[in-house]
Design brief:
591 residues, alpha/beta, seven-stranded mixed sheet, six-stranded mixed sheet, 18 helices, elongated
Protein backbone atom coordinates (compact mmCIF):
# COMPACT_ATOMS: atom_id res chain seq x y z
CA UNK A 1 0.00 0.00 0.00
CA UNK A 2 1.36 3.44 -0.92
CA UNK A 3 2.40 5.53 2.11
CA UNK A 4 0.11 8.55 2.30
CA UNK A 5 0.28 11.65 4.42
CA UNK A 6 -3.18 13.02 5.15
CA UNK A 7 -3.54 16.81 5.33
CA UNK A 8 -6.52 19.03 6.01
CA UNK A 9 -7.35 22.72 5.73
CA UNK A 10 -9.94 24.26 8.03
CA UNK A 11 -11.32 27.09 5.96
CA UNK A 12 -13.07 29.07 8.71
CA UNK A 13 -14.87 32.36 9.22
CA UNK A 14 -13.23 34.01 12.22
CA UNK A 15 -14.49 37.17 13.91
CA UNK A 16 -12.00 39.70 15.20
CA UNK A 17 -11.93 39.62 19.00
CA UNK A 18 -14.40 36.73 19.35
CA UNK A 19 -11.97 34.54 21.24
CA UNK A 20 -14.65 32.20 22.54
CA UNK A 21 -16.26 31.69 19.12
CA UNK A 22 -12.99 31.39 17.22
CA UNK A 23 -11.56 28.95 19.74
CA UNK A 24 -14.70 26.83 19.57
CA UNK A 25 -14.47 26.67 15.77
CA UNK A 26 -10.81 25.63 15.89
CA UNK A 27 -11.51 22.86 18.38
CA UNK A 28 -14.54 21.57 16.45
CA UNK A 29 -12.61 21.39 13.18
CA UNK A 30 -9.60 19.85 14.90
CA UNK A 31 -11.75 17.10 16.38
CA UNK A 32 -13.36 16.52 12.97
CA UNK A 33 -9.92 16.23 11.37
CA UNK A 34 -8.81 13.72 14.00
CA UNK A 35 -11.89 11.61 13.36
CA UNK A 36 -10.83 11.44 9.70
CA UNK A 37 -7.32 10.26 10.52
CA UNK A 38 -5.64 13.50 9.42
CA UNK A 39 -1.90 13.85 10.13
CA UNK A 40 -1.81 17.65 10.12
CA UNK A 41 -4.59 20.23 9.86
CA UNK A 42 -4.02 23.91 9.07
CA UNK A 43 -6.05 26.86 10.38
CA UNK A 44 -5.94 30.38 8.93
CA UNK A 45 -3.62 33.25 9.79
CA UNK A 46 -4.42 34.77 13.21
CA UNK A 47 -7.33 32.34 13.46
CA UNK A 48 -7.63 32.82 17.22
CA UNK A 49 -7.65 36.63 17.20
CA UNK A 50 -9.40 37.13 13.88
CA UNK A 51 -7.85 38.99 10.96
CA UNK A 52 -6.93 41.82 10.79
CA UNK A 53 -7.11 42.87 14.45
CA UNK A 54 -5.46 46.24 13.75
CA UNK A 55 -4.79 48.33 16.89
CA UNK A 56 -6.36 45.72 19.14
CA UNK A 57 -2.88 44.22 18.94
CA UNK A 58 -1.63 47.13 21.03
CA UNK A 59 -3.85 46.08 23.95
CA UNK A 60 -1.95 43.79 26.30
CA UNK A 61 -5.11 42.01 27.46
CA UNK A 62 -5.98 41.20 23.84
CA UNK A 63 -2.64 39.46 23.38
CA UNK A 64 -2.99 37.72 26.73
CA UNK A 65 -6.46 36.40 25.86
CA UNK A 66 -5.23 35.14 22.49
CA UNK A 67 -2.39 33.23 24.20
CA UNK A 68 -4.81 31.81 26.76
CA UNK A 69 -7.03 30.46 23.97
CA UNK A 70 -4.07 28.85 22.24
CA UNK A 71 -3.24 27.05 25.48
CA UNK A 72 -6.88 25.87 25.69
CA UNK A 73 -6.74 24.46 22.14
CA UNK A 74 -3.45 22.58 22.50
CA UNK A 75 -4.73 19.60 24.54
CA UNK A 76 -7.20 18.76 21.76
CA UNK A 77 -4.37 18.10 19.29
CA UNK A 78 -3.71 14.48 20.16
CA UNK A 79 -3.38 12.17 17.15
CA UNK A 80 -3.51 15.06 14.66
CA UNK A 81 -1.00 17.91 14.59
CA UNK A 82 -2.49 21.38 14.11
CA UNK A 83 -1.03 24.58 12.69
CA UNK A 84 -2.90 27.50 14.27
CA UNK A 85 -2.43 31.21 13.59
CA UNK A 86 -2.04 33.46 16.66
CA UNK A 87 -0.27 36.62 17.86
CA UNK A 88 2.92 35.66 19.67
CA UNK A 89 4.47 37.82 22.35
CA UNK A 90 8.06 38.02 23.54
CA UNK A 91 10.41 40.98 23.33
CA UNK A 92 8.15 42.02 20.44
CA UNK A 93 4.87 41.00 18.84
CA UNK A 94 4.90 38.42 16.07
CA UNK A 95 2.38 37.15 13.55
CA UNK A 96 2.85 33.48 14.32
CA UNK A 97 1.76 29.90 13.72
CA UNK A 98 1.76 27.40 16.56
CA UNK A 99 2.39 23.75 15.81
CA UNK A 100 0.29 21.72 18.25
CA UNK A 101 1.19 18.08 18.72
CA UNK A 102 0.33 15.44 21.31
CA UNK A 103 -1.54 17.91 23.47
CA UNK A 104 1.10 20.63 23.68
CA UNK A 105 2.55 23.59 21.81
CA UNK A 106 5.43 21.78 20.14
CA UNK A 107 6.80 24.66 18.11
CA UNK A 108 6.20 28.15 16.75
CA UNK A 109 6.92 29.78 13.41
CA UNK A 110 7.04 33.59 13.24
CA UNK A 111 6.16 35.27 9.96
CA UNK A 112 9.25 36.65 8.25
CA UNK A 113 7.84 38.73 5.40
CA UNK A 114 5.51 41.42 6.75
CA UNK A 115 3.38 43.15 4.10
CA UNK A 116 3.05 46.91 4.42
CA UNK A 117 1.18 47.95 1.28
CA UNK A 118 -2.42 48.24 0.16
CA UNK A 119 -4.66 47.20 3.05
CA UNK A 120 -1.77 45.72 5.04
CA UNK A 121 -0.06 47.46 7.99
CA UNK A 122 1.79 44.57 9.57
CA UNK A 123 5.03 46.47 10.20
CA UNK A 124 3.01 48.80 12.42
CA UNK A 125 2.51 45.93 14.87
CA UNK A 126 4.83 43.00 14.25
CA UNK A 127 8.53 42.24 14.05
CA UNK A 128 9.72 39.64 11.52
CA UNK A 129 10.78 36.21 12.64
CA UNK A 130 14.31 34.97 12.07
CA UNK A 131 14.11 31.16 11.83
CA UNK A 132 12.29 28.96 9.38
CA UNK A 133 11.83 25.62 11.17
CA UNK A 134 10.81 22.29 9.71
CA UNK A 135 8.71 19.93 11.85
CA UNK A 136 8.85 16.17 11.29
CA UNK A 137 5.29 14.92 11.79
CA UNK A 138 4.68 11.19 11.51
CA UNK A 139 7.97 10.86 9.70
CA UNK A 140 7.26 13.60 7.14
CA UNK A 141 9.18 16.91 7.21
CA UNK A 142 6.68 19.80 7.15
CA UNK A 143 7.54 23.46 6.67
CA UNK A 144 5.24 26.14 8.10
CA UNK A 145 4.95 29.67 6.69
CA UNK A 146 2.38 32.47 6.79
CA UNK A 147 0.75 34.23 3.83
CA UNK A 148 3.25 36.79 2.45
CA UNK A 149 6.14 34.41 3.08
CA UNK A 150 5.19 32.42 0.00
CA UNK A 151 4.22 35.21 -2.43
CA UNK A 152 7.78 35.91 -3.58
CA UNK A 153 10.46 33.36 -4.47
CA UNK A 154 13.13 32.36 -1.98
CA UNK A 155 12.83 33.18 1.68
CA UNK A 156 11.57 30.76 4.31
CA UNK A 157 9.92 28.33 1.89
CA UNK A 158 13.13 27.73 -0.05
CA UNK A 159 15.06 27.36 3.20
CA UNK A 160 12.61 24.76 4.45
CA UNK A 161 12.70 22.89 1.17
CA UNK A 162 16.49 22.72 1.29
CA UNK A 163 16.25 21.49 4.87
CA UNK A 164 14.15 18.56 3.64
CA UNK A 165 10.53 19.70 3.90
CA UNK A 166 8.26 17.62 1.65
CA UNK A 167 5.07 19.47 2.62
CA UNK A 168 4.75 23.25 2.93
CA UNK A 169 1.85 24.45 5.07
CA UNK A 170 1.05 28.13 4.43
CA UNK A 171 -1.72 29.73 6.51
CA UNK A 172 -3.43 32.86 5.22
CA UNK A 173 -5.68 35.83 5.59
CA UNK A 174 -5.59 36.82 1.93
CA UNK A 175 -8.27 39.44 1.12
CA UNK A 176 -10.47 39.08 -1.90
CA UNK A 177 -10.07 41.14 -5.04
CA UNK A 178 -11.69 40.42 -8.37
CA UNK A 179 -9.73 37.72 -10.22
CA UNK A 180 -7.01 37.52 -7.56
CA UNK A 181 -7.51 33.78 -7.09
CA UNK A 182 -6.13 33.16 -10.60
CA UNK A 183 -2.86 34.94 -9.82
CA UNK A 184 -2.69 33.15 -6.49
CA UNK A 185 -3.08 29.71 -8.04
CA UNK A 186 -0.38 30.37 -10.63
CA UNK A 187 1.98 31.59 -7.91
CA UNK A 188 1.36 28.51 -5.76
CA UNK A 189 1.91 26.16 -8.71
CA UNK A 190 5.21 27.89 -9.39
CA UNK A 191 6.39 27.58 -5.78
CA UNK A 192 5.42 23.91 -5.63
CA UNK A 193 7.24 23.10 -8.87
CA UNK A 194 10.34 25.18 -8.11
CA UNK A 195 10.90 23.72 -4.65
CA UNK A 196 9.45 20.25 -5.25
CA UNK A 197 7.05 20.41 -2.32
CA UNK A 198 3.36 19.85 -1.84
CA UNK A 199 1.90 23.24 -0.89
CA UNK A 200 -1.02 23.30 1.56
CA UNK A 201 -2.38 26.84 1.26
CA UNK A 202 -5.23 27.52 3.69
CA UNK A 203 -7.17 30.78 3.44
CA UNK A 204 -9.67 32.54 5.68
CA UNK A 205 -13.25 33.22 4.62
CA UNK A 206 -15.66 35.89 5.79
CA UNK A 207 -16.20 39.62 5.95
CA UNK A 208 -14.27 41.98 8.21
CA UNK A 209 -15.29 45.63 7.82
CA UNK A 210 -14.26 46.51 4.24
CA UNK A 211 -12.42 43.26 3.55
CA UNK A 212 -13.80 39.95 2.35
CA UNK A 213 -11.84 36.70 2.42
CA UNK A 214 -12.78 34.24 -0.28
CA UNK A 215 -11.34 30.94 0.88
CA UNK A 216 -10.49 28.90 -2.23
CA UNK A 217 -7.80 27.16 -0.20
CA UNK A 218 -5.55 25.01 -2.31
CA UNK A 219 -3.38 21.91 -2.12
CA UNK A 220 -0.86 21.81 -4.95
CA UNK A 221 1.32 18.81 -5.75
CA UNK A 222 5.07 19.10 -6.44
CA UNK A 223 4.48 19.12 -10.20
CA UNK A 224 2.00 21.99 -9.98
CA UNK A 225 -1.07 19.78 -10.14
CA UNK A 226 -4.12 20.82 -8.10
CA UNK A 227 -4.83 18.10 -5.56
CA UNK A 228 -7.70 19.83 -3.75
CA UNK A 229 -9.45 23.18 -3.66
CA UNK A 230 -11.73 24.67 -1.05
CA UNK A 231 -15.04 26.26 -1.98
CA UNK A 232 -15.37 30.00 -2.51
CA UNK A 233 -16.85 32.12 0.30
CA UNK A 234 -17.85 29.10 2.42
CA UNK A 235 -16.52 27.39 5.52
CA UNK A 236 -15.24 23.88 4.91
CA UNK A 237 -12.78 21.21 5.99
CA UNK A 238 -10.79 20.12 2.95
CA UNK A 239 -8.95 16.79 3.32
CA UNK A 240 -6.51 15.14 0.91
CA UNK A 241 -3.85 12.44 0.84
CA UNK A 242 -0.30 13.16 -0.36
CA UNK A 243 2.02 10.52 -1.79
CA UNK A 244 5.23 11.43 0.06
CA UNK A 245 7.37 8.87 -1.79
CA UNK A 246 6.36 10.45 -5.08
CA UNK A 247 7.42 13.85 -3.73
CA UNK A 248 10.80 12.43 -2.72
CA UNK A 249 11.22 10.96 -6.17
CA UNK A 250 10.44 14.24 -7.91
CA UNK A 251 12.78 16.35 -5.81
CA UNK A 252 15.80 14.14 -6.50
CA UNK A 253 15.96 15.71 -9.94
CA UNK A 254 14.95 19.28 -9.07
CA UNK A 255 17.77 21.60 -10.17
CA UNK A 256 16.38 24.70 -8.44
CA UNK A 257 16.61 23.20 -4.95
CA UNK A 258 20.33 23.78 -4.48
CA UNK A 259 22.31 25.33 -1.64
CA UNK A 260 23.68 27.88 -4.13
CA UNK A 261 20.24 29.44 -4.43
CA UNK A 262 20.12 30.11 -0.70
CA UNK A 263 23.71 31.22 -0.23
CA UNK A 264 23.00 34.94 0.24
CA UNK A 265 19.85 34.67 2.36
CA UNK A 266 21.29 33.21 5.53
CA UNK A 267 17.97 31.83 6.81
CA UNK A 268 18.21 29.21 9.52
CA UNK A 269 15.97 26.20 9.00
CA UNK A 270 16.31 23.94 12.05
CA UNK A 271 14.56 20.58 11.95
CA UNK A 272 12.50 19.43 14.95
CA UNK A 273 11.31 15.84 15.09
CA UNK A 274 7.89 15.62 16.69
CA UNK A 275 7.01 12.09 15.61
CA UNK A 276 8.83 9.56 13.45
CA UNK A 277 6.02 7.04 13.57
CA UNK A 278 4.54 6.43 10.14
CA UNK A 279 2.04 3.75 11.14
CA UNK A 280 -1.07 5.68 10.09
CA UNK A 281 0.30 6.25 6.59
CA UNK A 282 -0.46 2.68 5.54
CA UNK A 283 -4.17 3.14 4.90
CA UNK A 284 -6.59 3.25 2.01
CA UNK A 285 -6.62 6.47 0.02
CA UNK A 286 -9.50 8.88 0.25
CA UNK A 287 -12.02 8.76 -2.59
CA UNK A 288 -10.97 10.88 -5.53
CA UNK A 289 -13.15 13.98 -5.71
CA UNK A 290 -12.56 16.57 -8.44
CA UNK A 291 -11.76 20.00 -6.95
CA UNK A 292 -14.76 22.36 -7.10
CA UNK A 293 -14.52 24.91 -9.88
CA UNK A 294 -14.07 28.54 -8.81
CA UNK A 295 -17.01 30.86 -9.56
CA UNK A 296 -17.23 32.83 -12.79
CA UNK A 297 -15.95 36.40 -13.10
CA UNK A 298 -19.24 38.11 -12.28
CA UNK A 299 -20.50 35.50 -9.84
CA UNK A 300 -17.41 35.81 -7.65
CA UNK A 301 -18.02 39.56 -7.22
CA UNK A 302 -21.69 39.03 -6.38
CA UNK A 303 -20.87 36.37 -3.80
CA UNK A 304 -18.22 38.61 -2.25
CA UNK A 305 -20.82 41.36 -1.88
CA UNK A 306 -23.29 38.95 -0.28
CA UNK A 307 -20.78 37.56 2.22
CA UNK A 308 -19.38 40.99 3.06
CA UNK A 309 -22.86 42.38 3.69
CA UNK A 310 -24.01 39.39 5.72
CA UNK A 311 -20.98 39.41 8.00
CA UNK A 312 -20.94 43.18 8.49
CA UNK A 313 -24.60 43.21 9.51
CA UNK A 314 -24.57 40.08 11.66
CA UNK A 315 -21.18 40.50 13.30
CA UNK A 316 -22.11 44.04 14.30
CA UNK A 317 -25.45 42.99 15.77
CA UNK A 318 -27.92 44.89 13.57
CA UNK A 319 -31.54 43.75 13.53
CA UNK A 320 -32.00 44.34 9.84
CA UNK A 321 -31.22 46.78 7.05
CA UNK A 322 -33.04 49.55 5.24
CA UNK A 323 -32.50 50.54 1.61
CA UNK A 324 -33.76 53.63 -0.15
CA UNK A 325 -35.32 52.40 -3.40
CA UNK A 326 -35.28 54.87 -6.29
CA UNK A 327 -36.31 52.51 -9.06
CA UNK A 328 -32.74 52.72 -10.39
CA UNK A 329 -30.09 50.11 -11.03
CA UNK A 330 -27.88 50.76 -7.99
CA UNK A 331 -30.55 50.54 -5.29
CA UNK A 332 -32.09 47.53 -7.06
CA UNK A 333 -28.79 45.65 -6.98
CA UNK A 334 -28.14 46.55 -3.34
CA UNK A 335 -31.61 45.28 -2.40
CA UNK A 336 -30.93 41.97 -4.18
CA UNK A 337 -27.60 41.55 -2.41
CA UNK A 338 -29.20 42.36 0.94
CA UNK A 339 -31.97 39.79 0.47
CA UNK A 340 -29.49 37.11 -0.59
CA UNK A 341 -27.29 37.97 2.40
CA UNK A 342 -29.90 38.31 5.14
CA UNK A 343 -33.26 37.01 3.91
CA UNK A 344 -36.26 39.06 2.85
CA UNK A 345 -37.59 39.48 6.41
CA UNK A 346 -34.49 41.44 7.43
CA UNK A 347 -34.61 43.88 4.49
CA UNK A 348 -36.83 46.97 4.50
CA UNK A 349 -37.30 49.07 1.39
CA UNK A 350 -38.25 52.73 1.39
CA UNK A 351 -39.44 54.74 -1.58
CA UNK A 352 -39.20 58.53 -1.21
CA UNK A 353 -40.78 60.07 -4.29
CA UNK A 354 -40.59 63.73 -5.20
CA UNK A 355 -42.17 65.82 -7.94
CA UNK A 356 -39.37 64.63 -10.25
CA UNK A 357 -39.90 60.90 -9.64
CA UNK A 358 -41.17 59.32 -12.82
CA UNK A 359 -43.95 56.80 -13.10
CA UNK A 360 -41.37 54.34 -14.45
CA UNK A 361 -39.34 54.70 -11.25
CA UNK A 362 -42.38 54.09 -9.07
CA UNK A 363 -43.39 51.06 -11.13
CA UNK A 364 -39.88 49.58 -11.18
CA UNK A 365 -39.45 49.97 -7.41
CA UNK A 366 -42.81 48.28 -6.79
CA UNK A 367 -41.93 45.39 -9.12
CA UNK A 368 -38.57 44.91 -7.41
CA UNK A 369 -40.04 44.76 -3.90
CA UNK A 370 -42.68 42.29 -5.03
CA UNK A 371 -40.11 40.06 -6.74
CA UNK A 372 -37.86 40.09 -3.67
CA UNK A 373 -40.70 39.72 -1.17
CA UNK A 374 -39.58 42.61 1.01
CA UNK A 375 -41.68 45.10 2.94
CA UNK A 376 -41.73 48.66 1.63
CA UNK A 377 -42.61 52.05 3.07
CA UNK A 378 -43.49 55.10 0.99
CA UNK A 379 -42.38 58.41 2.47
CA UNK A 380 -42.90 61.26 0.00
CA UNK A 381 -40.37 64.06 0.44
CA UNK A 382 -42.25 66.95 -1.21
CA UNK A 383 -43.46 68.47 2.05
CA UNK A 384 -40.09 68.02 3.77
CA UNK A 385 -38.25 69.75 0.91
CA UNK A 386 -40.72 72.64 0.94
CA UNK A 387 -40.07 73.13 4.67
CA UNK A 388 -36.33 73.25 4.04
CA UNK A 389 -36.80 75.77 1.23
CA UNK A 390 -39.04 77.94 3.40
CA UNK A 391 -36.51 77.92 6.23
CA UNK A 392 -33.73 78.96 3.84
CA UNK A 393 -35.72 81.46 1.75
CA UNK A 394 -34.45 84.57 3.53
CA UNK A 395 -30.86 83.34 3.58
CA UNK A 396 -31.00 82.50 -0.16
CA UNK A 397 -32.75 85.75 -1.18
CA UNK A 398 -31.44 87.12 -4.47
CA UNK A 399 -29.82 83.86 -5.55
CA UNK A 400 -31.30 81.67 -8.27
CA UNK A 401 -32.07 77.97 -7.65
CA UNK A 402 -29.14 75.66 -8.41
CA UNK A 403 -27.69 72.34 -7.31
CA UNK A 404 -28.31 73.36 -3.69
CA UNK A 405 -32.05 72.84 -4.09
CA UNK A 406 -31.42 69.52 -5.84
CA UNK A 407 -29.30 68.32 -2.95
CA UNK A 408 -31.98 69.29 -0.44
CA UNK A 409 -33.95 66.41 -1.91
CA UNK A 410 -31.11 63.94 -1.40
CA UNK A 411 -30.53 65.22 2.14
CA UNK A 412 -34.21 64.93 2.98
CA UNK A 413 -34.08 61.30 1.95
CA UNK A 414 -30.92 60.74 3.99
CA UNK A 415 -32.59 62.17 7.08
CA UNK A 416 -35.62 59.95 6.69
CA UNK A 417 -33.50 56.82 6.30
CA UNK A 418 -31.41 57.69 9.35
CA UNK A 419 -34.57 58.32 11.38
CA UNK A 420 -35.79 54.83 10.52
CA UNK A 421 -32.39 53.46 11.48
CA UNK A 422 -32.54 55.21 14.86
CA UNK A 423 -36.08 54.11 15.60
CA UNK A 424 -35.89 50.45 14.51
CA UNK A 425 -32.20 49.59 14.77
CA UNK A 426 -31.87 49.01 11.02
CA UNK A 427 -28.54 49.57 9.30
CA UNK A 428 -28.83 51.97 6.35
CA UNK A 429 -27.26 50.48 3.23
CA UNK A 430 -26.11 53.22 0.87
CA UNK A 431 -26.33 52.62 -2.85
CA UNK A 432 -23.53 54.65 -4.46
CA UNK A 433 -21.15 52.85 -6.82
CA UNK A 434 -17.40 53.34 -7.38
CA UNK A 435 -17.84 55.45 -10.49
CA UNK A 436 -19.96 57.95 -8.58
CA UNK A 437 -17.74 57.91 -5.51
CA UNK A 438 -14.66 58.47 -7.67
CA UNK A 439 -15.90 61.69 -9.25
CA UNK A 440 -17.98 62.93 -6.32
CA UNK A 441 -21.33 62.38 -8.04
CA UNK A 442 -23.01 61.97 -4.68
CA UNK A 443 -24.43 64.21 -1.97
CA UNK A 444 -22.81 64.57 1.42
CA UNK A 445 -25.35 63.80 4.16
CA UNK A 446 -27.78 62.77 1.44
CA UNK A 447 -27.37 59.58 -0.59
CA UNK A 448 -23.97 59.17 1.14
CA UNK A 449 -25.67 58.99 4.56
CA UNK A 450 -25.70 55.47 5.96
CA UNK A 451 -23.78 52.75 7.71
CA UNK A 452 -22.48 50.42 4.99
CA UNK A 453 -21.80 51.02 1.29
CA UNK A 454 -22.40 47.66 -0.39
CA UNK A 455 -21.31 48.61 -3.93
CA UNK A 456 -18.88 51.39 -3.04
CA UNK A 457 -16.07 49.62 -4.92
CA UNK A 458 -18.17 48.38 -7.85
CA UNK A 459 -17.83 50.39 -11.10
CA UNK A 460 -21.11 51.32 -12.77
CA UNK A 461 -20.54 49.11 -15.81
CA UNK A 462 -20.02 46.14 -13.48
CA UNK A 463 -23.24 47.06 -11.64
CA UNK A 464 -25.11 46.31 -14.86
CA UNK A 465 -23.25 43.00 -15.32
CA UNK A 466 -24.13 41.97 -11.78
CA UNK A 467 -27.79 42.85 -12.27
CA UNK A 468 -27.98 40.78 -15.46
CA UNK A 469 -26.19 37.86 -13.78
CA UNK A 470 -28.57 37.89 -10.81
CA UNK A 471 -31.61 37.89 -13.07
CA UNK A 472 -30.16 35.07 -15.15
CA UNK A 473 -29.48 33.02 -12.04
CA UNK A 474 -33.04 33.55 -10.82
CA UNK A 475 -34.44 32.65 -14.22
CA UNK A 476 -36.65 35.74 -14.04
CA UNK A 477 -36.39 39.49 -13.70
CA UNK A 478 -35.83 40.22 -10.03
CA UNK A 479 -34.52 43.56 -11.24
CA UNK A 480 -37.00 44.79 -13.87
CA UNK A 481 -35.61 44.83 -17.41
CA UNK A 482 -36.61 48.48 -17.71
CA UNK A 483 -34.22 49.39 -14.89
CA UNK A 484 -31.32 47.87 -16.79
CA UNK A 485 -32.32 49.35 -20.15
CA UNK A 486 -33.10 52.96 -19.30
CA UNK A 487 -30.57 55.78 -18.93
CA UNK A 488 -29.41 56.21 -15.31
CA UNK A 489 -30.80 59.27 -13.54
CA UNK A 490 -30.78 60.81 -10.07
CA UNK A 491 -34.20 62.45 -10.78
CA UNK A 492 -33.36 65.61 -8.84
CA UNK A 493 -34.64 67.80 -11.66
CA UNK A 494 -36.81 67.36 -14.73
CA UNK A 495 -35.42 65.19 -17.57
CA UNK A 496 -32.10 64.66 -15.76
CA UNK A 497 -29.66 61.86 -16.66
CA UNK A 498 -26.23 61.04 -15.25
CA UNK A 499 -24.66 61.91 -18.59
CA UNK A 500 -25.70 65.54 -18.16
CA UNK A 501 -22.82 65.71 -15.67
CA UNK A 502 -20.59 62.73 -16.43
CA UNK A 503 -19.07 61.09 -19.51
CA UNK A 504 -20.79 57.85 -20.56
CA UNK A 505 -19.88 55.15 -18.06
CA UNK A 506 -18.35 53.05 -20.84
CA UNK A 507 -15.81 55.87 -21.19
CA UNK A 508 -15.62 56.94 -17.56
CA UNK A 509 -14.93 53.55 -15.97
CA UNK A 510 -11.81 52.70 -18.03
CA UNK A 511 -10.35 56.14 -17.26
CA UNK A 512 -11.08 55.68 -13.55
CA UNK A 513 -9.51 52.22 -13.56
CA UNK A 514 -6.31 53.62 -15.02
CA UNK A 515 -6.15 56.69 -12.78
CA UNK A 516 -7.45 55.32 -9.46
CA UNK A 517 -6.39 51.67 -9.54
CA UNK A 518 -3.34 51.74 -11.81
CA UNK A 519 -2.02 55.20 -10.77
CA UNK A 520 -1.41 56.24 -14.35
CA UNK A 521 -0.83 59.86 -15.27
CA UNK A 522 -3.05 61.91 -17.55
CA UNK A 523 -0.46 61.68 -20.34
CA UNK A 524 -0.32 57.89 -20.05
CA UNK A 525 -4.12 57.62 -20.20
CA UNK A 526 -4.37 59.97 -23.17
CA UNK A 527 -1.66 57.94 -24.94
CA UNK A 528 -4.06 55.00 -24.90
CA UNK A 529 -6.50 56.93 -27.08
CA UNK A 530 -8.75 58.70 -24.58
CA UNK A 531 -9.90 62.26 -25.23
CA UNK A 532 -7.51 64.67 -23.42
CA UNK A 533 -10.33 67.01 -22.40
CA UNK A 534 -12.38 64.18 -20.92
CA UNK A 535 -9.35 62.76 -19.11
CA UNK A 536 -8.48 66.13 -17.58
CA UNK A 537 -12.07 66.65 -16.48
CA UNK A 538 -12.37 63.21 -14.89
CA UNK A 539 -9.06 63.54 -13.04
CA UNK A 540 -10.08 66.97 -11.71
CA UNK A 541 -13.36 65.54 -10.39
CA UNK A 542 -11.56 62.63 -8.70
CA UNK A 543 -8.97 64.85 -7.07
CA UNK A 544 -11.36 67.38 -5.60
CA UNK A 545 -13.69 64.68 -4.20
CA UNK A 546 -11.27 63.26 -1.61
CA UNK A 547 -12.99 65.44 1.00
CA UNK A 548 -16.28 63.74 0.31
CA UNK A 549 -14.95 60.21 0.12
CA UNK A 550 -13.40 60.47 3.59
CA UNK A 551 -16.91 60.93 4.98
CA UNK A 552 -18.43 57.95 3.19
CA UNK A 553 -19.36 54.78 5.10
CA UNK A 554 -17.17 51.69 4.77
CA UNK A 555 -17.86 49.40 1.86
CA UNK A 556 -16.77 46.07 0.41
CA UNK A 557 -13.44 45.94 -1.42
CA UNK A 558 -13.70 44.02 -4.68
CA UNK A 559 -11.11 45.74 -6.92
CA UNK A 560 -7.32 45.65 -6.56
CA UNK A 561 -7.38 49.22 -5.19
CA UNK A 562 -10.39 50.50 -3.27
CA UNK A 563 -10.93 53.91 -1.73
CA UNK A 564 -10.03 53.97 1.94
CA UNK A 565 -7.28 51.74 3.27
CA UNK A 566 -6.02 50.95 -0.22
CA UNK A 567 -5.72 54.50 -1.53
CA UNK A 568 -4.54 57.13 0.94
CA UNK A 569 -4.29 60.67 -0.37
CA UNK A 570 -4.32 63.93 1.61
CA UNK A 571 -7.45 66.08 1.54
CA UNK A 572 -5.39 69.27 1.70
CA UNK A 573 -3.44 68.80 -1.50
CA UNK A 574 -2.48 71.30 -4.22
CA UNK A 575 -0.70 68.80 -6.46
CA UNK A 576 -2.46 68.23 -9.77
CA UNK A 577 0.22 66.68 -11.97
CA UNK A 578 3.59 67.90 -13.19
CA UNK A 579 2.14 70.31 -15.79
CA UNK A 580 -0.61 71.80 -13.58
CA UNK A 581 -0.23 75.40 -12.36
CA UNK A 582 0.33 75.90 -8.63
CA UNK A 583 -1.05 79.41 -8.40
CA UNK A 584 -4.23 78.55 -6.52
CA UNK A 585 -5.57 75.68 -4.44
CA UNK A 586 -8.22 73.42 -5.95
CA UNK A 587 -11.81 73.86 -4.87
CA UNK A 588 -13.10 70.94 -2.85
CA UNK A 589 -16.55 69.61 -3.67
CA UNK A 590 -19.09 70.23 -0.89
CA UNK A 591 -22.17 69.11 -2.80
Amino acid sequence: MTPRFRVAMAQMNATVGDFEGNTRKVIERLEEAQSLGVDVVAFPELAIAGYPPEDLLIKTDFIRDNLRCLAEIAPYATSTAAVVGFADSGDHLYNAAAVLHEGRIAGVYRKMRLPNYGVFDEKRYFQPGTDSPVFVIHGVPVGVTICEDIWAPGGPLLAQSLAGALVAVNINGSPYARGKWRLREEMLKTRARDYAVAVVYNNLIGGQDELVFDGLSLIVGPTGDIVARGPAFEEALIVADLDVEAIRGIRRYNSIRTTDALRDEGIRAPVYTLSNSAGRMERPALPTVPPPAPPGEVEEVYRALVLGTRDYVRKNGFRGVVVGLSGGIDSSLVACVAVDALGADAVHGVTMPSEFTSEDSRRFAAALTEALGIRVLELPIGGVVKEYEAALRAAFAGRPPDITEENLQARSRGNLLMALSNKFGWLVLTTGNKSEMSVGYATLYGDMAGGFAVIKDVPKTLVYDLARWRNARAGRDLIPAGVIERAPTAELRAHQTDQDTLPPYETLDPILERYVEDDRSADEIVAEGFDPTVVARVIAMVDRSEYKRRQAPPGIKITPKAFGRDRRLPITNWYRGSRAPLAAPPAASTE
